[in-house]
Amino acid sequence: MKILFAAPDRDLLECYKKLLETDLGETVTAFDGTQVITLLSTESFDIALLDRNLPRVDHKTIIERANAKNVPVVVLTDGPAGLRNKADEPVPDGMLSYPFTFDSVKDAVRHTLESNIGKERKEAVKKDE
Amino acid sequence: MNKAEKKFRLYAILVIFVLLTLLLAVINGVNFTMAASDADVLTQKLADKQGSFEHRENLPDGIQFQPDQPRNKDFGMGPMGPDSPEMNESLRYFTVAFSENGEKAETVAFHISAVTEEEAKEWAYGLMKQKTGWTRGTYRYRVYKEHGTTYVTVIDQGRELLPSFRILIISAIGEVLVLVIGWFVLLAIGRKIYAPLEEADRKQKNFIANANKEFRVPLTIIDGNTELTERRYGPDDQTRSTHRQVAKMNELVDKLGSVGIFDKEKMSAAEISLSDQLAEALDRAAISFSSRGIELTSEIAPEVTVIADPEGMSKLTDELIENALKFALTKACFKLNRENGSVIIEASNDTDLPDGPADQAFDRFTTLQNAKEGGAGLGLSFVKQTVKAHNGRASASVSGGVFTIRIAL
Description:
The complex is a heterodimer. By secondary structure, chain A is α/β, with parallel strands linked by helices. Chain A is built from four helices and five strands; from the N terminus they run E-H-E-H-E-H-E-E-H.
């Protein structure tokens, strides 16, 4: 599994890169929205964990790019209030509010991937019909 | 203009009204009391002269007419009011003397135009059993006895009371004018007065919200790094303790967040079954209560619903339960019912606090009771904020060793 983890805090990136690589697979980190856009266009990912407040590129654009590449997205938000998606934003595949534990990240990744596989299957069945 | 500013303006005008009314009531009260006192001095003077300032020959046996003292030469600076030497000449009054059985009435003095002598006798007869006081609005009377004869003296104080009535009317008009002007002044400068208070409140909320945001990522990193340490060297007491402390901090941070976010503008509204919500929340918490040796009881009326913010109400019930879990000594009770069209939620627990109101429990960062385990004093603050946002009322009190929070929605 290849994961894109983006957040504007280098300590968080370093810590979670190690944790994610230990338990889930190869992890690429990004510090701002520009890096995320570049990575999404040059590499393929199974899932992206993206902070909602990445600098330089707005959150909506980043999610749209990830959706275009069929990369499921889990959004990391400031608090419970951030879990309410804004009306004009594309709906992400999952949301997680800071502060979170590594177990909750693993659960979110697993749940998002499972529901995404289910979604792909449904779409494939529809196409076949 | 927001609600708090309107409230501030109303309180300000109410304070002006109360203070002004009090001041004018005292001034007018003293004024009228002094007028009555002056009138009593005059009726007493007449009583001392058997009801008349005029010299009389046919006085009852044993009574001698007391002539006036020589007048003050320096009359320009002489005494005023009832002591003025001019009073004897200008006073409008009459005195009626009644025989012992009250059948025979004689007019001792009659210097008044408002009534005839016959009417004066009838009027005086009606006052015979009184002592002193006001009659027919502006007339002051005194009833006194000498040698078996009852004298009723009535003096007209209309002219003397006129300035007092004028002051009363001017005071009332003045007060209304001051209130109207005060209201417009408050409208004009109220914003300036209230703005710093609003700014302070906004800064406090922003500080809490910002502090809350700033805590969230570091806590995630601390927990993540502890997880990494455990993977490298295995878990030990220190790493487990760090996880526990981080979990507590996470909880506190979530509460801090809710203090800032519960604004009316951000509320949503849906019909919620409070009966179901509270029952389910209590079911979930039953094990926690029993593990802490707390006897949990509830009286939940069925099908109690409210139109409210679902997230806010859910947190409200959770906070009430958590509060009871933290502070109950041995017992906790939750009640839900309807009273006079309002939904009433009551959460109570036994306590060692003294009897009395305990509304300070709703203040931020305030804990009144001794918590069994950490209490940041934010839970009930959130409860109050949520209730207020739903136009409800929340109160707390202690009675007979029971701490009760009562919410009306």
